[in-house]
């Protein structure tokens, strides 16, 4: 494999490494932002209507039991509050320049210098006048004719042979310079490509914690959404049950049958938790939701599971 092929291969690997990582990260960021928006929308819906419905359902019931209110989780550090994450700006991968243009320039320049240098040498030995006003086509014919004379051993030979010789030598020197420049550029660019690949790996390594954080936050928020949705659904169901209980059993909690008391107690607990959901700050710690926030939603899930077990006989 030539150095140029190695450069192209290494650069392509660096590009693929970065693009694959950025695609995965940005997909997770997009999913996280959508999940966060869903959670906020759910919380707003609860705040706007469901809390009032539960409050109304529980109103007018006498001797209703009192439960300890769930503490509202707050965060004083604004930077830790979970917010929408901006997609990552692309890490630019530029393939090192081949150096072809520069090599061609120096090759052509060298060839011209050699060609006209041969002409100058020929003119010198021919003792021609270098006055710019005296330089014309005949001047060049005589200058390059010097080499024709050398090859033929005669004087006044046609300049074509000398010109051809000068062109050949100029081409050889020009190509040699072009080759050396290309070789040097290829070696330099190969090292640059290797350094670029290492930079790409380091970039991915540095961004891995962000990917882990986004994934963890997304999954924790999904669990929070599930727990909140489930508690809201059961709260809606319990609110309807309480209206039925008040209609058939009156407004004194002490006179209710055991199942009715349990439904009201469940609604009291769900109402308390949903009030806390609406007012609790969702904030991060290290690479996930804060421990107390996760525990809060785990508690809601446990309550939901207990109610679910009673409803479905689990």
Textual characterization of the structure:
The protein is mainly α and 314 residues long. It folds into two domains: 3-87 and 197-312, no CATH class; 100-192, no CATH class. The protein contains six helices and two strands, in the order αααααββα. The protein has helices spanning 3-58, 100-125, 137-152, 160-249, 258-279, 291-312; strands spanning 284-285, 288-289. The chain has a two-stranded antiparallel ribbon. β1 and β2 form a beta hairpin. α2 crosses α3, α2 runs antiparallel to α4 and α3 (137-152) crosses α4 (160-249). The longest helix is centred in the middle third of the chain and has 90 residues, at 160-249. The two termini are 66 Å apart.
Descriptors:
mainly alpha, two-stranded antiparallel ribbon, 2 domains, single chain, 314 residues, 2 strands
Major beta sheet, specifics?
2 strands, antiparallel
Total helical segments: 6
Strand order of the largest sheet: 1-2
| Total beta-strand segments | 2
Short description:
This protein is an all-alpha fold and 314 residues long.
Strands, helices and their partners?
Blueprint: H1 3-58, H2 100-125, H3 137-152, H4 160-249, H5 258-279, E1 284-285, E2 288-289, H6 291-312
Antiparallel strand pairs: 1-2
Helix pairs in contact: 1-4, 1-5, 2-3, 2-4, 3-4, 4-5, 4-6
């Amino acid at each position: 494999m030539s150095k140029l092929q190695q450069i192209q291969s290494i650069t392509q690997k660096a590009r693929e490494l970065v693009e694959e990582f950025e695609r995965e990260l940005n997909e997770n960021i997009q999913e996280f932002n959508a999940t966060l928006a869903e959670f906020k929308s759910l919380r707003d819906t609860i705040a706007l209507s469901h809390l009032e419905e539960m409050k109304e359902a529980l109103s007018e019931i006498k001797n209703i039991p009192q439960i300890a209110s769930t503490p509202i989780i707050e965060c004083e550090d604004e930077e830790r509050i979970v917010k929408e994450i901006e997609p990552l700006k692309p890490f630019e991968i530029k393939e090192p320049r081949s150096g072809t243009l520069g090599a061609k320039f120096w090759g052509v320049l060298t060839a011209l210098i050699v060609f006209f240098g041969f002409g100058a040498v020929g003119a010198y030995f021919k003792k021609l006048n270098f006055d710019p006003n005296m330089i014309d086509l005949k001047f060049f014919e005589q200058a390059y004719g010097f080499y024709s004379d050398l090859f033929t051993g005669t004087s006044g030979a046609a300049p074509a042979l000398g010109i051809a010789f000068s062109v050949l030598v100029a081409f050889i020197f020009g190509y040699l310079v072009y080759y050396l420049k290309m070789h040097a550029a290829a070696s330099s660019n190969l090292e640059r490509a290797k350094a670029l690949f290492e930079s790409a790996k380091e970039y991915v390594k540095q961004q891995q914690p962000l990917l882990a954080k986004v994934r963890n936050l997304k999954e924790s928020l999904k669990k929070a959404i599930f727990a909140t949705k489930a508690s809201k659904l059961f709260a809606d169901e319990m609110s309807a049950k309480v209206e039925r209980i008040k209609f058939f059993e009156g407004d004194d909690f002490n006179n209710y049958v055991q199942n009715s008391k349990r439904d009201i107690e469940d609604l009291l607990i769900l109402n308390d938790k949903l009030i806390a959901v609406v007012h609790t700050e969702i904030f991060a710690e290290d690479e996930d939701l804060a421990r107390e926030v996760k525990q809060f939603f785990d508690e809601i899930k446990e309550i939901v599971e207990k109610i679910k077990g009673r409803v479905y006989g689990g």
